[in-house]
């Protein structure tokens, strides 16, 4: 029988539409403004008593708290009554807690538990709509140059030691220039020939000062530029990897000027976690424990995480830069560990160092740049004032000190970690890649919803106006069939929002433009179908046959038109960045949903109301 769906097709349409409604519903619940408190150490959770004290302090300042909670990641969340209170609350809590805690602006979801239990959540809004977090980071180029030159100096020291060329490091040596003092001219000149023959990127000078013959070396200007470019590129790669680990949609990570990097995370839900992972300049060093008869200057003393100290050789075996992969897991006793895979070169260095030192202890050192606040006197507007400045200090701590049982290669494990959170964070930082140089937060800006309020209002208005005009036109021009198209158009918007929510896509202002375009494209298919039905009616076909032929013959045209548009959207997504991708994502999803609603849903409504009946007239 013409124009009759089997019962399972109706149930399929109802099922898909129901799923769409459920997953679109969370977007009706507006997020609460909030501040999030988390400890610098992932293993340390924020206690409820800390949140209660924070609540009391804020209430004394006239800032109301809607609720507070400890998240499953151990962070504290204080829900506020208005966005105006956010900045004030952050400043008050930050000053009270000090440098051991990260206090960040956040948006707390208000989705009901029954929707969350089904995995339903709202789609994210871009930086231009509901805001997000903006970081400006500065790469410490002096540290990058100093680290590279120190590595070269260690190689030179080994080479000169092999040739019995003794020297003393002069007090005039700096991070970017090393000066070596020799007892006579012959040894100095021989050392100079060794350095010149092996390191062509160094500017080498020699001279004498009384009875001291000195040799100095530093990087050439061209080499310094290469080091700076490498540091920026390596840090960009590591940042992008870390952002990908956070699961942020459509992030922006790009270079700005000579030594700065901009990071924008639109619609991010956990700004504190983002800052912790992005800002952590963590690295590892593997070193042997010093021999008992080691002389002063051949070793250094570092603190152990569990307490106490240990003497370690200054020579580094490998660093975190040579880690190819790192995964958190558990040892045979159920304690957290990190499985390390080194690169080929790193594996060779590790094997060479351990195969001749079986029975000795090897330490794993965790290196981190920690921020601290210092009050300094400055002249502001011609007057002396005390201002707070953020400084950074390097902390080195031994996280593991174990005896070498056998020669190690490219794969081994790090134990001695306190918690699963610590092992996961260490694995993430190593997997994402170490920074070539430390980076400091120069600017941190959380863009609140008020900034994008006008964009949201205008974008919403454009969708509503376009939607209403299309509804009116379809109803007037196609009558009852236009009503079917309008129902399908409404369901199309619901399914589009549901799909974007399921995919955790970020909606931007260009994305709203994609929705407006989708509204027009969604009824375009129905216009083709209805026009075809009217043509078949003019040819004298029975009404049931006209309906059948209209849907059947228009299908190929609709499919061709939408596939070509989808191909363009895919190309836009592939070559575009940021907002362009937002438009491409919305357009692509809209094409898929519009094909389903325009062809399947309207056909189901037509079959349900007109199928299998003797028709004398069609209101089309």
List the helices and strands and how they pair.
Blueprint (H helix, E strand, L loop, with lengths): L6 H18 L7 E8 L8 H13 L4 E6 L5 E5 L3 H14 L3 E8 L4 H4 L7 E2 L6 E8 L1 H22 L5 E2 L8 E5 L2 H14 L3 E8 L2 E8 L1 H26 L5 E5 L3 E7 L4 H9 L3 E6 L10 E6 L4 E5 L4 E2 L3 E8 L5 E7 L1 H12 L5 E20 L2 E21 L7 E4 L5 H13 L6 E9 L5 H50 L3 E2 L1 H30 L4 H33 L3 H32 L10
Parallel strand pairs: 5-23, 14-20
Antiparallel strand pairs: 1-3, 1-4, 2-3, 6-12, 6-22, 7-8, 8-10, 9-10, 11-12, 13-16, 13-19, 14-15, 17-18, 18-21, 19-20
Helix pairs in contact: 1-11, 5-7, 7-8, 7-10, 11-12, 11-14, 12-13, 12-14, 13-14
Summarize this structure as a short list of keywords or feature phrases.
14 helices, 23 strands, 47% helix, four-stranded antiparallel sheet, six-stranded mixed sheet, SecDF_P1_head, elongated, 620 residues, alpha+beta
What does this entry look like structurally?
This protein is of the alpha+beta class. It has 14 helices and 23 strands. It has helices spanning 7-24, 48-60, 84-97, 113-116, 141-162, 185-198, 221-246, 271-279, 344-355, 420-432, 453-502, 509-538, 543-575, 579-610, and strands at 32-39, 65-70, 76-80, 101-108, 124-125, 132-139, 168-169, 178-182, 202-209, 212-219, 252-256, 260-266, 283-288, 299-304, 309-313, 318-319, 323-330, 336-342, 361-380, 383-403, 411-414, 439-447, 506-507. A 6-stranded mixed β-sheet has the order 15-14-20-19-13-16. The longest helix is centred in the last third of the chain and has 50 residues, at 453-502. The radius of gyration is 33 Å and the shape is elongated. The protein starts with 6 loop residues before the first helix and ends in a 10-residue tail after the last helix. Belongs to the SecD/SecF family. SecD subfamily. Its main location: membrane. Residues 304-437 form the SecDF P1 head subdomain domain. Part of the Sec protein translocase complex. Interacts with the SecYEG preprotein conducting channel. SecDF uses the proton motive force (PMF) to complete protein translocation after the ATP-dependent function of SecA. Keywords: Cell membrane, Membrane, Protein transport, Translocation, Transmembrane, Transmembrane helix, Transport.
